Amino acid sequence: MTNYNCARIIFATLALFCSSALLAQEKPTKLELMPMPAKIEFQSGKFSLTDSFKIAITGNPNQRLYSGATRALRRLAGRTGLFFPQDFLRPDVVVDSPALTINCERPGQVKFGEDESYTLTIAPAQILLAAKTDLGALRGLETFLQLLAVDEQGYYFPSVKIEDAPRFAWRGLMIDASRHFMPVDVVKRNLDAMAAVKLNVLHWHLSDDQGFRVESKAWPKLHELGSDGFYYTQAQIREVIAYAAERGIRVMPEFDVPGHATSWVAAYPELGSAPGPYQIERKWGIFYPVLNPTKEFTYQFLDKFFGEMAVLFSDPYFHIGGDEIEHADYHEAKHWNESAEIQAFKKKHNLADNAAVQAHFNQRMLKILTKHGKIMVGWDEILHKSMPTNIIIQSWRGRESMVQAAQQGYQSLLANGYYIDLIQPTDFHYLNDPLPADLPLTGEQKKKILGGETTMWAEYVSPETVDSRIWPRTAAIAERFWSPQNVNDVDDMYRRLEVISFQLEEHGLTHEKNYAMMLRRLTRNQDITPLKNFVDVIEPVKIYNRGRLRPHTSYSPLTRVVDAARPDAAAARKFRRNVDDYLEKRQQNHTSAEQINFSLGLWRNNHAALLPVIKASPVLAEIESPSKDLSEISGIGLEALTFLEQNQTAAASWKDEKLEALSRAKEPRGQTELMVVSAIEKLVVAASEKR
Amino acid sequence: MTNYNCARIIFATLALFCSSALLAQEKPTKLELMPMPAKIEFQSGKFSLTDSFKIAITGNPNQRLYSGATRALRRLAGRTGLFFPQDFLRPDVVVDSPALTINCERPGQVKFGEDESYTLTIAPAQILLAAKTDLGALRGLETFLQLLAVDEQGYYFPSVKIEDAPRFAWRGLMIDASRHFMPVDVVKRNLDAMAAVKLNVLHWHLSDDQGFRVESKAWPKLHELGSDGFYYTQAQIREVIAYAAERGIRVMPEFDVPGHATSWVAAYPELGSAPGPYQIERKWGIFYPVLNPTKEFTYQFLDKFFGEMAVLFSDPYFHIGGDEIEHADYHEAKHWNESAEIQAFKKKHNLADNAAVQAHFNQRMLKILTKHGKIMVGWDEILHKSMPTNIIIQSWRGRESMVQAAQQGYQSLLANGYYIDLIQPTDFHYLNDPLPADLPLTGEQKKKILGGETTMWAEYVSPETVDSRIWPRTAAIAERFWSPQNVNDVDDMYRRLEVISFQLEEHGLTHEKNYAMMLRRLTRNQDITPLKNFVDVIEPVKIYNRGRLRPHTSYSPLTRVVDAARPDAAAARKFRRNVDDYLEKRQQNHTSAEQINFSLGLWRNNHAALLPVIKASPVLAEIESPSKDLSEISGIGLEALTFLEQNQTAAASWKDEKLEALSRAKEPRGQTELMVVSAIEKLVVAASEKR
Predict the structure, then answer these.
(1) Distance in angstroms (rounded) separating the CA atoms of residues B568 and A334
(2) What Å distances lie between residue A417 and A176, A413, A420, CA to CA?
(3) Cβ contact, residue pair B74, A560, below 8 Å
(4) Rounded Cα gap, residues B324 and B334, in angstroms
(5) Does residue B324 have an active-site annotation?
């Protein structure tokens, strides 16, 4: 904690001061860094990259830094095509006249609160990356790689001095590998991408109603009967943890108890609160199976299991889930309520309600985890007046519960607002600050907010699509966790995000390349252009509407148009922005009008091109109607634009008719929605206003 | 052997008889099967696919078939977006009214010569897939999936009766994981693709001068000092073997001895024939380090090591390499020739030459492998008059050596002609029959030819590009190994290959999707269209020219234009075909003229669009000159086309001048070559011929 808070105070000084610094320079450099460093000073000149570039490591480094620097060198070669002379950086090889010197004071530890600060100084003749720990140096190498630029002379790095350290020490991505299993390569490429944007915790959600995903030697039926054969072997778990550690990323496992437990009781029905037998759940939702808190067997079982996992997962933090045993609005703890045994237990132990029963269970969990050297982490619901404050609360239900936890003395993590499975736009997540200035917390209480995590729940993602839900939005969230609070210019975030998203492909991420691939499959290898024009401006429906509109199971295909469609559709977002720009200052803004005209023309004509493709591929039948709508409303938009450009006012009857058509186009189909309707509505309304 | 030869006799009856069968049908179906089955009979009608589709398994199946059928069901759902009712096929679940019934007489064994035949009968009301073994059923499921078609009513399967069995029992893909390490996910996705085209052997080249890629507990320095940290753990090897076995694919390891041994002696210099010390080789080529055949330690070492690997790799076939100790034309066995100890040993044992020394070594290898229950396989050079005929010869140097081996009583495999690293066109490999009718072999000798393997040597491929070298060409080679000899219509192969290549993306292969990704990186995320137009018609230089033109090391970047460029560039091939069609029958062929005109116009104008992209991305500088050439020669082609279309004859001086320009355009640059020059030359020559 000390390092991190110290760093926060020292470096919380940015205020986009780079933009003013830019003015002082002769040739302003538009930096494409994400997360934005705490402090950047521009110098004059540049370091020109040539094929003689070499890296030396000095100080007191470890093997991780040698490997990390070698990887950075390969990535630089990969981007530039330059044949660098160095093969592998090694302690036993002396490097003559290095271009980049990395100095590291001591080997870091991959643990919460480790120093991740670094200073990067790029001068025309040499580059120095200095860090307390190798972890700081790895973070600095990512910044270094993001600085690679091009001018008429070739590749270069701008002369800068960067001082950087994270705002929050806990910067996580949660991957749900239970609802859809995510093979090791999926996890690894996401770890690489996490490292690229300086995230440092993989929270691995490993059990849920739909699957138990870790091999247990203590209780082998867990993976044998609870997984359909899709689970990580212990060797694979170790492989992933080592891979993460090489990148300075901690791995925190989550085994969800006592609820979300169908896969546990499918394997060991004797753990359940109802008689069973149970089967792995295939549907999505919240289900009744819940561990039995009254049986000693339950605790013996978990003691043995957590003991096994405590050794396998070396990080001291251990997440026990704890969510959704019951929910005031729509879900009761049925198996507890209906069990005479549990009711008697409640009475005997004077437990007022099910929350108290869960707290009783959690006290036992805490004892077990403490015995195994672990710090207990859980979702909101583990917070209870009877629980000590040495547990960590992860807030998913809302910021209020995080605030309450901090006020009561609990450390906490924010997940609420970072649910990337809900298909919300990047700026929504980006502007969700874990610790806004106006929170009703004392300085001491604020220190209890350790950071945040973005959560990739996996009901509607497969290994093929998961990257497109995580990235690029998670890069913007990573900036929220790392960069100073006042780095919050949404336009600049989107400008940088486009570049960073492209760079992330370097790690094998499929968020970009699987798009065309999925469209090829959907068209049966016809020309994808018209389908792409359409899918570019739709998004999957938001929040929990997908399942409401069409019930899915764990084996439903995730290859439809809704799966190819991506969150925060860039083409639609840019169009909406153009319309706003145009309407706000339309006299000066011919570019916006031209771009709007171009987009609407493209879409108006698109249905004619797409229709034969739809007819030749039955899986596309569900978009025939919205594709037709897109053409129609684009025609409406063009009419509105003509009124506006000719400075004429449309009749009220025209407006009413067109708004009704637009309103129909808002209807979700195929669990997707057109993301340009609201902007066209604005054009229609503006066209019919007196000017 | 029996099953396979029997099958060969029964089913070697096709002669593209499907095309004549098609004529008998009312609505001819253009099948897109690869490999083409041995026998197809068309029936009337079709089976309509709906979301009530279910699969049942009968007979005497094993778990592998349940898993395989479940995967097939998921793939069908993935392609069609249909929500099928079945989750996992399981022995304990009775399926009511299945649409597809799979009957399997007995569990197959993943071993050489196992029965892989199947019969697939699709009728309007139901589908029956019958096989002797589950392996045959898995092969049949791939054919079934390739038959999925579409008409106005939706998805369907045409009514057919297919009887099928392989021509050769050994149908392999060799992956070199030594020169560039190929992580587990690369191997797995290629195993899926292999299964899709009915290949059944993964030959895994695991050691070479540039890296030793398997964890050895017996001799841990092999992977510790011989791999730069890039090796498969034994757990990963087991994981891959199990994954392959699930798909009916054998895994044969190759540990190359006594040559290609730098990584061995880098770890254990005492194995070497020269004093050492040694370092892992970073360059490409043939190197001197070779194991010492005179020391008992060498044999003790290999006994222990092969003993360990014999357990790890369950297949009885074990490849010991054995290639390139010396080569008559350009390489001597220097370390043997210069070692007094080895010279004395030669004398003492009356060994005439180094080939005899190697044979002496190989006799020891054979003893060791036999002791560990393995059948010895090696490259051409292990053939020696002193060796018994119970070893398998893999012919890489030419068909002649395979023929000689067969004549001398050795079983053999053909690799020559299937070296896909040499960037030759698909039809070259496709028409390379392992066993042409005119071979000077008796019937008994012909039976010695077990099959063939395509070889993916990895000097110039990385995990990012390897799929684009293996696929789709290997699908055509797979047809050569599986289908009857007289399935050899190149045009029809290319027609089907385009569809199959697209379908192979289903397995996560990157041969298609990494193309655009690499172009994005090369352009630094500019519009890739002009670069794509250019790279679409270039190919990497062929055979071993890449390294001759620019020396590479094992850490040179493989991200340049030459790496994005693909073998057998389809756009160029189609253009050449159009030109041939046009020139052969140009009066009737206006379509060809139009297509030629379109292509040439596109390319002529492309340089102007590509030049600013090149200027903004230094890695593209090396294509400025060939891009300019493409525009110029396309202009020449358009001139020639005008002469031809206007029925005018160009002057000889014009021809000479243009041919000289074309000749200059043939010069490789950036280790790539323009693949449309020869066709434009033909146009120029034709334009200047008297008509």
Answers:
(1) 64
(2) 17, 12, 8
(3) no
(4) 12
(5) yes
How far is Cα A257 from Cα A366, in angstroms, rounded to an integer? 12
Q: Is-cis flag, bond preceding A35, omega within 30? A: yes
Put residue B542 in one of left, alpha, beta given phi > 0 → left and psi -120 to 50 → alpha: beta
Amino acid identity, position A549: L
The Cα–Cα gap between A619 and A523 comes to 8
- Tell me if chain A has a CB within 8 Å of the CB of B154: yes
Q: Does B489 touch chain A (CB under 8 A)?
A: no
> Cis ω on the peptide bond leading into residue A668 (within 30° of 0)?
no
pLDDT digits 0-9 by tens, A389-428? 999 999 998 888 889 999 999 999 999 999 999 999 999 9
Token pair, residue B579, equals: 């030109």
Question: Looking at CA atoms only, how far is residue A363 from chain B in angstroms?
Answer: 38
| Range(s) within chain A of domains with CATH label 3.20.20.80 | 170-180+193-456
Higher-scoring residue by pLDDT: A691, A205: A205
The torsion angles phi and psi of A14, rounded to 5 degrees, stand at: -75, -65
Q: How many helices and strands (H and E) does chain B possess?
A: 27, 19
In angstroms, the CA A291 to CA A269 distance is 9
Residue A59, by phi and psi: left (phi above 0), alpha (psi -120 to 50) or beta? left
A572 to A425, A682, B103, B355: CA distances (angstroms): 11, 14, 51, 70
Cα–Cα distance between B367 and B148 in angstroms, integer? 51
- How far apart, in whole angstroms, are the C-alpha atoms of residue B221 and residue B138? 40
Find residues 399-418 of chain B whose CB sits inside 8 Å of chain A.
none
Query: Which of A259, A283, A284 is closest to A272 using CA atoms?
Result: A259
Which among A81, A183, A498 has the least Cβ separation from residue B619?
A: A81
Helix axes A677-687, A624-645, angle to 10 degrees: 30
Q: Which amino acid, A534?
A: F
Contact (CB, 8 A) for B359 and B346? no
Task: Give me the CATH code for the B170-180+193-456 domain, please.
Answer: 3.20.20.80
Question: Using the beta-carbon criterion (under 8 Å), do A520 and B514 form an inter-chain contact?
Answer: no
Burial class (CB in 10 A: 0-12, 13-18, 19+), A17: middle
Query: CA A672, CA A289: separation in Å to the nearest integer?
Result: 32
Question: Could you say which of B83, B556, B559 has the minimum Cβ distance to residue A556?
Answer: B83
Chain A touched by B559 (CB under 8 Å): yes
Q: How far apart are CA A359 and CA A384, in angstroms?
A: 6
Give the mean pLDDT per block of 10 residues along chain B (691 residues). 36 38 46 96 95 98 98 98 97 95 98 98 97 98 98 97 98 98 98 98 98 98 97 97 98 97 98 95 95 97 98 98 80 90 95 94 97 97 92 91 92 96 98 93 94 98 98 98 97 97 98 98 97 98 96 98 98 96 76 93 98 98 98 98 95 97 98 98 95 74
Question: E strands within B153-270?
Answer: 154-164, 170-176, 201-205, 207-208, 211-212, 250-254
**Is the CB of residue B119 less than 8 Å from the CB of residue B161?**
yes
CA-nearest of B158, B160, B120 to B136 is: B120
Reported CATH class of domain A3-164 = alpha beta
Identified catalytic residue from B324, B464, B539, B673: B324
Preceding peptide of B183 cis, ω within 30°: no
Instruction: Report the distance separating Cα A109 and Cα B508, nearest Å.
Output: 36
Instruction: Write out the residue limits of the CATH 3.30.379.10 domain(s) in chain B.
Output: 3-164
How far apart, in Å, are the Cα atoms of A689 and each of A596, A684, B286?
A: 19, 9, 80
- Measured torsion, CA atoms of residues B190, B191, B194, B195, in degrees rounded to the nearest 10: -140
CB atoms within 10 A of CB B296: 8
